[in-house]
UniProtKB/TrEMBL annotation:
Example GO molecular function: acyltransferase activity
Gene Ontology biological-process annotations: alginic acid biosynthetic process
Taxonomic path: Bacteria, Pseudomonadati, Verrucomicrobiota, Opitutia, Puniceicoccales
Location relative to the cell: Cell membrane
Keywords of the record: Acyltransferase, Cell membrane, Membrane, Transferase, Transmembrane, Transmembrane helix
One Gene Ontology term, aspect cellular component: plasma membrane
Main location class: membrane
Membrane association type: Multi-pass membrane protein
Transmembrane residue ranges: 6-25, 37-57, 77-99, 111-131, 151-170, 190-212, 246-264, 323-344, 365-382, 413-430, 442-471
Family of the protein in this entry: Belongs to the membrane-bound acyltransferase family.
InterPro entries per record: Ac/AlaTfrase_AlgI/DltB (IPR024194), AlgI (IPR028362), MB_O-acyltransferase (IPR051085), MBOAT_fam (IPR004299)
Listed Pfam families: MBOAT
Protein name: MBOAT family protein
């Protein structure tokens, strides 16, 4: 069920109405749980079984871990949980990728191996909910949080529909305690939640799908090299598209949860206003970057074991982060490039540490622009279907490609340029401010006009009803 569909609007209205009925809190939670299963089953009903399996295994495993004092027993149950979750993720998401690479490796050594074609359907959102449920058992294993005694609360934590398919990836401490007592939105929360949902729809339908997707699709879908300007505008268009698409989903999710009285963590904080790449990862897909930091980078040793080990840990984290996004070597290259950027940043930080001129506003702005440009280069690997396409576009971006016919119209160029400049400028101006503060300082009539304007543009454009980009991950 897509957020940007009439079906979801009707579904959410029913869920909201049921949530405000004068019934007990347990019944309201059951309504939310059943609604969440229905929301997920709208894509492919059999895959609800995977949610059930993950829920039951992790609830039982965490309970056994908490009760046992024997390290071997606790480790065994942790392995059961991680094996189940990573096993499902590995089979459904990486099974075909691993098989293809095995066949290619066998062919390189002279073995002509032709296995039966695997037909594996990727369950939507599996990367998100497996990470979320694993964080629960890992936290219980580390004694960072106690297990919940309510299976209903845990099941709702796993399947809570606003963030089930594409995050934010919520930690147990952030959501499970909210289910212990009744939550119902106040009037200000309901209005703010509906406003956030409108903003998210505007980001997805108008900004991503209508304004930017045509330019990105034209450039990355070109069979031949494209001109220098087309290549840059296509990459910039995709950088803006994926931000508005994914930030739009997160904004709708946070708004929908708030309408029900629940709070979800922010997932984006003006990432294109980042000054450096570590700053970018503190602002982009915050729930994933913090998850990778806490459950991968720090357990690997973080920066506690010397510079060489720090660099290795950074690269491993970014490589696995890239592979998490998709079962293709282009995503690994995307992660490797981000790892290299973090290496470069650390080296520059040592050289320029303590230099007062680095804090001047002009230098910070130029650093921000350089960060934005270099991040745009990485999006080429993220969007391109293969290395051949990525190579053609990158060569064109560096002025080294063959002369190609333009694929963007004058309208595409102007629209993309205006939106990208607006995105960077808006992010830069508001980089250290919260949306709530900005809206709170507006005159009520200006906020009402902005809300009405977004609704009008959503209705006029309507979009193509396309799925959110991160659904494929």
């Amino acid at each position: 069920m897509l957020f940007n569909s009439l079906t979801f609007v009707i579904f959410f209205a029913i869920v909201l109405a049921l949530h405000h009925l004068p019934i007990g809190w347990r019944w309201k939670k059951l309504n939310l749980l059943l609604g969440s299963y229905l929301f997920y089953a709208a894509w492919n009903p059999p895959f609800v079984l995977l949610l059930w399996l993950s829920t039951v295994v992790d609830y039982v495993a965490a309970g056994r871990i908490a009760k046992s004092e024997r390290l071997a027993v606790r480790r065994a149950w942790l392995l059961v949980s991680m094996g189940t979750n990573l096993g499902m993720l590995g089979f459904f998401k990486y099974g075909g990728f691993l098989l293809d690479n095995f066949v290619a490796a066998a062919g390189a050594y002279g073995f002509d191996y032709h296995p039966a074609m695997a037909s594996i359907i990727l369950p939507v959102g599996i990367s998100f909910y497996t990470f979320q449920t694993m964080s629960y058992t890992i936290d219980v294993y580390r004694r960072n949080s106690p297990p919940t005694n309510s299976f209903l609360d845990f099941a709702l934590f796993v399947t809570f529909f606003p963030q089930l398919v594409a995050g934010p990836i919520v930690r147990p401490k952030q959501l499970i305690p909210q289910f212990k007592k009744e939550h119902q939105a106040t009037h200000p929360q309901l209005m703010w939640g509906l406003g956030l949902m409108t903003l998210g729809m505007f980001q997805k339908i108008v900004m991503a799908d209508t304004f930017l997707a045509p330019s990105a699709d034209a450039v990355f879908g070109a069979a031949e090299s494209v001109p220098f300007i087309d290549a840059w505008l296509g990459a910039l268009a995709f950088g803006g598209q994926i931000f508005f698409d994914f930030a739009g989903y997160s904004t709708i999710a946070i708004g929908a949860a708030l309408c029900l009285g629940f709070s979800l963590p922010e997932n984006f904080r003006y990432p294109y206003a980042a000054i450096g790449f570590s700053d970018f990862w503190k602002r982009w897909h915050i729930s994933l970057s913090s998850w990778l930091r806490d459950y991968l980078y720090i357990p690997l040793g973080g920066n506690r074991k010397g510079p060489a080990r720090t660099y290795i840990n950074l690269m491993l984290t970014m490589l696995l982060g890239g592979l998490w996004h998709g079962a293709a070597w282009t995503f690994v290259a995307w992660g490797a490039l981000h790892g290299f950027y973090l290496w470069l940043e650390k080296g520059c930080a040592r050289i320029f540490a303590g230099k007062e001129w680095t804090q001047k506003s002009t230098v910070r702005l130029l650093t921000g622009l350089a960060t934005f440009a270099l991040i745009t280069l990485t999006w080429v690997f993220f969007r391109a279907p293969d290395f051949a396409t990525a190579s053609r576009i990158l060569l064109s971006m560096f002025g080294l490609g063959a002369d190609g016919a333009p694929v963007l119209t004058t309208t595409d160029m102007l629209l993309t340029s205006v939106v990208v400049v607006f995105l960077f400028a808006f992010s830069w101006i508001l980089r250290d401010r919260m949306v709530e503060d900005v809206v709170g300082r507006m005159p009520w009539w200006l906020g009402a006009c902005a809300w009405a304007g977004m609704l009008v543009l959503i209705i006029l454009t309507q979009g193509g009803g396309g799925a959110f980009i991160y659904f494929q991950f």
